[in-house]
Specification:
The complex is a heterodimer of chains A (about 220) and B (about 425). By secondary structure, chain A is of the alpha/beta class. Chain A contains 8 helices and 11 strands. With about 425 residues, chain B is of the alpha/beta class. Chain B is elongated and about 95 Å long. The chains are: A alpha/beta (about 220), B alpha/beta (about 425). Chains A and B meet through β5, α7 and α8 of A and α11 of B.
Amino acid sequence: MDKNGNGLLTIALPKGRLADSTYGLFVEAQIQCPDPTEAGRKLILTDEELGIRLILAKPTDVPTYVEYGVADMGVVGLDTLLEAERNLLEVLDLGIGRCALCLCGDPKLLDVWPSLPHKRIGSKYPRYTERYFIEQMRESVEVIYLNGSVELAPLLNLTDMIVDIVESGQTLRENGLVVLRELTPVSARLVVNQASMRIKQERINGIISALSAVVK
Amino acid sequence: MNKWKYFSPEGVRDLLPAEFLAEEELRRRLTEYLHQSGLRGLGTPEIEFYDLYASGRFAPQEGLFKFIDERGRILCLRYDGTIPLARVLGTSLREHQLPDGFWYLGSVFRYNEQGGGKLRAFQQAGVELIGAGGTRADAEALRLASGFLAATGLQEYTFALGEVSYFKYLLENWQLAGEAEAAIIAAVQSQAVAALPTLTASYGLGADIVRALEMIMTRRDIGVLEDLSALAGDSRVREALDNLGAVYAAVRQIDPEVNLVLDLTLLQSMEYYTGTVFKAYAPGLAYPLLSGGRYDNVLANFSRPAPATGFSSSLPFILRALSWQAKNRDEDVLDILGVSDKLRRARIYYALPAYNRAVELSRELIAASLPTLLDWEDYDPDTAEAVREVSDDLLLYVDLDDCRVLNGADFDLSRGTDSLAGIIARYAKGEA
C-alpha cells in the first residue's frame, strides 16, 4: 500500500442496520473484511493485511463518497441512490433492506389523485418526486422538502400527498393515510466508482461475483 | 452593491503563483508534444452562437452559459473544442485538404459542472483527426492520447477501450420498445448485471439478448469479441467488433506495457459517437481524465461530411492526477513538472540620476539568465534590510560611481558571458 492508500479497497457502508446485514452477506460470500458491528464509535475500520477499509457513513452520504472516489464502492438503498442523482456504476442488487417508494395520502384520494390540479407533494426525496412526475406523468408539481415525519404534511394540509418509503405501512395506517401508488420497489444496491472499476478491476469483480452468488 | 466583491462565483478559481506555474509548464509540455506530433494548432473564440451546439444537440441546454447579443441572437460560451473546430472545417477551411490532424488548447465553460474538483471554466486540450476513418485512425487517436498523458509526467493511467456502433446495431436487431431500450442502455452503462433478471421479466427479453447483455457487461477478455459476433450473427456487429479487436491489438503491439482494458459498456454519449470510444483513468481522480472516440456524423452537420476521431482532456484534471502521484512520493506537483516557484531574481535599487546605469545593469543580468526587477523606491538601508528578511532576491545598489551587492547572496549565473562578480566589478568601477 502506498501513502494515498492506493493498495486499499475502500467500501462505504451506511451506518446502522444496513451495514450489519451487508456484513452478513460479506461473511456468507466469504469476503474477509473488518466487522462493522464491533466498530463502536469508530468511523473507519482498516485491515491492512487484507488491504480493505470500511467507512461507516450516513446513508445519504454514501453516493457522495463513491462518486468523488474517496470510496471505491459502497452499499446504498435505491431510494437514496435515486435521489442523489450521482454518476455511479450500480452493479448489484443486494436484495436486502427491501421496501418501496410510494405516493401516499388520504384514502379519499385513492382514485382521484391523478386529476388533482396544482399538486403539492411533501417529501424527503424532492428531486426523485419532481423527476417521477415529469417523466411518468408529464406534469410539474410543487414539491416541499421535509426532513422527516413526512406524514404530518397531508394531515396539516401543508401538501396534498407525500412521497416516502413504506416498509410495513404501520406509520401510514396509524395516521390515517394509504398508499396511492407504489412508485418503485427499493432494495440495497452495490455501487462502484467509475474510475475504480477500471483501475481496480480484478479485486472489485471478485467481490461482485462472490456477492452475486449469495444474494437472493 | 459590494457584498460579493471579495468572492469569485462558484466553479471558477484564481491560479496562485505556484498553480499558475504548474499550469503554464503543463501547457508548455502539451503544446510541445502536440506540435511534435505533426498536428496543426487551431484556435476558436470563447463566444459562439447558441445554434452551434443546439443544431446537433452537441451540448445539453443546461450546460451552456448563454446570453443575448444586441440583435436578439442567443450567444453562448465555448462548451468544447471539437464542435467549433468542425464549424471551421465546414467554413473557413472548407478547401483545406483532408485528412489532417488538429489540436487546440483553450478555455471551455460548462454551467452544469462543478464540485468534486470539477469547474465551470477550465482549460482543455484536444486532438481531432479529421477525414480519418478506419482502424489506423482509431489506433492512432489512442496512441496519441497515451503519448499526451505521458508527456504530462503522469506515470500511472489506465485506458478503457470500447465501441458504440455494435450496440446500436444490436438494438436495431432486437426491436425493443423505447422504454426497454432506455432501461437496457442504462443497465449496460452502469454494468448492472444483477438487474438482468428484472429487465428480462419486465420487457420479455429473449434468451439470446440476455446472453449478449451478460457478455457485454461481464467479459473483459479479447475472446468476447468473437463470441459476441457469433451470437449476434450480424455482419455489421462483426465488422465493428473486428475493428475494435484490431485497434486493441495495434495499441498493445506498440506498447505492450500499456494499461489497456477492453470494456464494451462504454456507451456514454451514444448519439454523438459512432465507433471506437476510449477513456483514461488515473489513481486519485474519480472520473475520466481523458475521453475520446470516433464521431463520423458531426462534420456533416457543418456541410463537410467526413469521418473523424479524437480526444480531449482537461488541464485541472491532469494536475489533480499529478498532485496525487506527487503526494505518494512526498513531492510537490512542481517537482514532477521540474519547475520551481522559488523566484530567483535580482532587485536593483538606484539613485535616480543613475537610472540609465540601472537599466543597463538589468539588461546585462537578464542576458546572464538572471530575471531582474528595478525597484521603485529610494534606496534606504532599512527597507533593504526588510526585503532581505522576507525574500531570496539578490539586492543590488547602483549610483553614478558605485555598484554593490547588498545581501551578499551567492548567485550562480547559469549562462551568459560574464560572472556576476565580473559584472558588478565593472559597474563598481564605473566602467560600464
